[in-house]
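$ ./design --mode recover --in tokens.txt
reading tokens...
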């Protein structure tokens, strides 16, 4: 009887181990295929943070005047609303489109300054609501739009803003929780009474910026609410491109 049981138990244990490995590998691959902003959102939600705004931003320099670029963009996105502004020697063509909770924006900027002429095209997608369906839609839009707009693969800057509603806590507890969730190592920090800024590096992210002697691809900013209700946070990778 024991030999009979052993005959079936061992193959069953091997099959169970194999299934566990396959599920683990599948989960690992799925996390690798996530957008960086999805990892940020997960880390923030683990600390019971409420997302109030998110954005993905990328751009590409253009060595030539953007006349042909603007024509190409308008042709590729005819349903968008387009506007032109020309101030202080800089011409900006802007295209915008609203999709429910998501807003998209394309900018083609041409500077005519002789000392430092700069031309670039940028794409931004942002919204207020963040959930699984929003993440999927943002991923599809980002991929399809960047393939049409840019000639090469560009750096994507991801940013999430929100609030921690716990009025008794400020600073290190939330930051340490985010760093732990993202398997990130702190590089430097600036701490004040109502403000905290931390720069770190995590191998979970697809992009990084090289600094003297090290790499960095995560920034976290916390600021106490002026009204005293909770703590506002901003989290971004590889760096924050706006104030916090």
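writing sequence...
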């Amino acid at each position: 009887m024991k030999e009979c049981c052993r005959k079936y138990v061992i193959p069953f244990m091997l099959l169970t181990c194999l299934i566990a490995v396959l599920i683990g590998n599948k989960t690992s691959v799925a996390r690798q295929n996530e957008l960086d902003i999805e990892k940020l959102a997960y880390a923030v939600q683990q600390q019971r943070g409420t997302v109030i705004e998110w954005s993905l931003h990328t751009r590409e320099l253009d060595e030539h005047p953007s006349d042909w670029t603007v024509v190409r963009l308008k042709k590729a996105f005819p349903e968008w609303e387009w506007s032109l502004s020309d101030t202080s020697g800089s011409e900006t063509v802007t295209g915008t489109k609203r999709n429910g909770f998501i807003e998209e924006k394309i900018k083609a900027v041409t500077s005519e300054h002789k000392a430092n002429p700069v031309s670039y095209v940028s794409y931004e997608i942002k919204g207020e609501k963040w959930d699984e369906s929003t993440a999927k839609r943002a991923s599809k839009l980002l991929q399809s739009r960047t393939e049409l707009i840019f000639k090469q693969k560009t750096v994507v800057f991801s940013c999430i803003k929100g609030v921690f509603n716990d009025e008794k806590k400020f600073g290190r507890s939330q930051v340490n929780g985010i760093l732990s969730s993202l398997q990130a190592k702190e590089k430097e920090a600036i701490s004040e009474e109502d403000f905290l800024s931390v720069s770190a590096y995590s191998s979970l992210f697809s992009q990084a910026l090289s600094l003297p002697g090290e790499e960095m691809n995560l920034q976290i900013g916390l600021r106490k609410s002026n009204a005293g209700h909770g703590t506002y946070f901003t989290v971004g990778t590889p760096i924050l491109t706006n104030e916090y």
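exit 0
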